[in-house]
Amino acid sequence: MPRLKIENTLKQKLTELDGKGLLKGKEMVIVGIQPAEDKKGPRYVLSGYPGKAFLRMNSNSYLGLSLNADVKKAEESVTEHFGVGPGAVRFISGTYAHHIALEAKLAEFHKREAAMVFSSAYAAIMGVITPLIDSNTIVISDALNHNCIINAIKLSRPKAKEIYRHLDTDDLEEHTKRFIGKGSRVLIVTDGIFSMRGDHAPLDRIAEIADRYDAVYPEGVNILVDDSHGVGAFGKTGRGTEEYTKAQGIDMIVATLGKSLGVNGGYIAASAAIIDYLREAAPFYIYSNPITPAEAAAAAKALEILDSKTGSKLLSKLRRLTRRFEEGLLAQEYEIIESEHPIVPLMVRDTKKTAEMVRYLIQNGILATGLNYPVVPRGDEEIRFQVSADHTEYDIDYALEILQAFKN
Known about the structure:
about 400 residues; alpha/beta; Aspartate Aminotransferase, domain 1; seven-stranded mixed beta sheet; three-stranded antiparallel beta sheet; 15 helices; 14 strands; about 45% helix; globular
């Protein structure tokens, strides 16, 4: 006989979330993809919407590589020879040549000594931050850092955790100074690109602060950047926020294989000593199966494309389409947060109107993300649009046309 008491409690919690407008609800299910044709980019078919195809402006696949023929071929070929799963965790018998090759390519791409791959970027942050923090570590974190960073710090139990105002390096420096003599090391943690806003961390100035105070902490001031939305979508060659800000002295970069590279998994690039330590100490690495050999091969191919003339063309197109969309929204007198990054937040600043706009966009065949409190602060409610290199000028202009009609 089922035990219903806990189920009743959980149902009540869901009801409370619904009453506060915080329930995410049922997921949209993609059941088909229509390839690009004529002036249109790919269109997506959803369960429950017969006869309708959607322009997808809520995808992290910024370069469109998830549909790239060469990336798909790389995955299919390795699947044929090595199967669909790794069959074990890395340190037992789950490491394949494709994992090693991918890690070498990632290290080279980021100009680091080494890299290691996790099952996801969320797992990478959770697996990396925890073993890097001990009872004498001071952690200083940006106020708008991603949920994975927040949860990783909670699990880590540092000596002190301080939150600095979003992008405010003066506040960051004050926190860094305040703990001199009170801890052995400082770990500064920040997103590279902030996923709700598309703005970026001033990594050059953060690195200067770390350099300024490194000598007064016995184990130094260290910087970890989660640039999952930056790598492959930001910077001249797609090397992310570090490249864009020309920062020097960033110790660790965590990013994903599942956004611009279009595949699955996460990784960290850092010094050989850090990576060697994390292979022995990161629980999300040690006790979880890795991505499949085929996924590793596909990610390596996607990275190869990014770091080529084709990648440069995709990045140029992405920037051009992003600017076209931003200029169109500004001409319609919408409030946005401008950036070269393809996340384009349309600031609605009202929960009810945000939901209304999302429904309107769906009715007109556009998928975009409505963000309300507590995902964003009260008053910062928005529609997050994400531009992709597999969009076309027609797609961008169609979205602008629909948004103009909403205003009218």
